């Protein structure tokens, strides 16, 4: 615990030095896209609807008559289907409005190392938040699951190698790309453009991010997910590049799979 606290202090010091605590650092890099907040909210809703339909379609195929797939397979296919839906919605949106290409929705090589730094700084802060959540749950008489997520619980119960590989792709590629486009790229931008400011938009979006994940998340892990979402949101506002939170999110999910030993 002391080691994680020390690492958290180092991460916060590095963030301060990089200017993450200066309001002027959040430059509103997507202003040039020429889309007002209602437009961004419409994009978020369209992407969410596409995610739901894509997830339902692939999960339905897996679990439908003759499908007989396991819950883990259906969950992984639903994640991939949802990602394909969000991706299709994003491609259609950019094609319909070329100005969106300047909105940070395209990844660049620089996003790889910046996202890796964001991930490294997020780990100790998220770990402390998870410890706080587990301690609070224990104080209220609950018994938090150390894995904390439905996908990890299903993996813990054992699964064929092919299903594990499918799940890894879903968790480390499909989910980060789809969720960052939907929540950071579209929804958070709508909140910021609606006048909430960078911090307000990040906090509101992060709250919604946790609410959507609540059905598959142990309650004790909600503070950790909120902290992670805030960090991802701030990284988007700070860099104006969606690739940054995508990389950090993907690395975090991969780290979770490794740390859980499942």
Describe the protein's architecture and organization.
The protein is globular, with a radius of gyration of 18 Å. The chain has one domain. α2 packs antiparallel against α6, α4 packs across α8 and α6 packs across α8. It is 74% helix and 0% strand. It is an all-alpha fold. The chain contains 8 helices and no strands.
Short description:
With 262 residues, the chain is mostly helical.
The amount of beta strand, in percent, is under 5%
Shape: globular
Q: Please tell me the overall pLDDT.
A: 85
Figure out the total of helices.
8
Assembly type: single chain
Helical content, roughly? over 70%
User: What is the end-to-end distance?
Assistant: 23 Å
Domain count: 1
SSE blueprint and pairings:
Blueprint lengths: L1 H16 L19 H27 L7 H26 L13 H30 L10 H7 L4 H53 L8 H18 L3 H18 L2
List its salient traits.
single chain; 262 residues; mainly alpha; 8 helices; 74% helix
């Amino acid at each position: 615990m002391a080691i994680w606290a020390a690492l958290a202090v180092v991460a916060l010091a590095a963030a301060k030095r990089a200017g993450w605590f200066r309001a002027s650092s959040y430059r509103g890099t997507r202003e040039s896209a020429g889309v007002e907040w209602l437009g961004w909210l419409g994009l978020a809703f369209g992407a969410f609807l596409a995610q739901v339909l894509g997830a339902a379609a692939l999960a339905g195929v897996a679990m439908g008559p003759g499908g007989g797939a396991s819950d883990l397979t259906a969950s992984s296919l639903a994640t991939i289907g949802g990602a394909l839906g969000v991706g299709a919605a994003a491609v259609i949106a950019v094609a319909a409005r070329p100005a969106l290409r300047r909105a940070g929705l395209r990844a660049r090589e620089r996003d790889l190392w910046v996202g890796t730094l964001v991930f490294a700084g997020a780990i100790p802060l998220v770990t402390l938040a998870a410890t706080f959540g587990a301690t609070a749950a224990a104080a209220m008489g609950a018994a938090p699951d150390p894995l904390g997520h439905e996908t990890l619980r299903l993996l813990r119960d054992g699964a064929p190698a092919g299903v594990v590989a499918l799940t890894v792709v879903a968790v480390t590629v499909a989910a980060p790309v789809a969720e960052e486009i939907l929540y950071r790229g579209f929804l958070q931008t709508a909140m910021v453009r609606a006048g909430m400011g960078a911090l307000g938009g990040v906090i509101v979006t992060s709250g919604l991010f946790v609410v959507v994940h609540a059905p598959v998340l142990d309650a004790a892990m909600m503070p950790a997910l909120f902290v992670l979402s805030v960090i991802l949101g701030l990284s988007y506002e700070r860099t104006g590049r969606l690739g940054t939170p995508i990389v950090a999110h993907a690395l975090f999910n991969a780290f979770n799979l490794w740390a859980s030993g499942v």
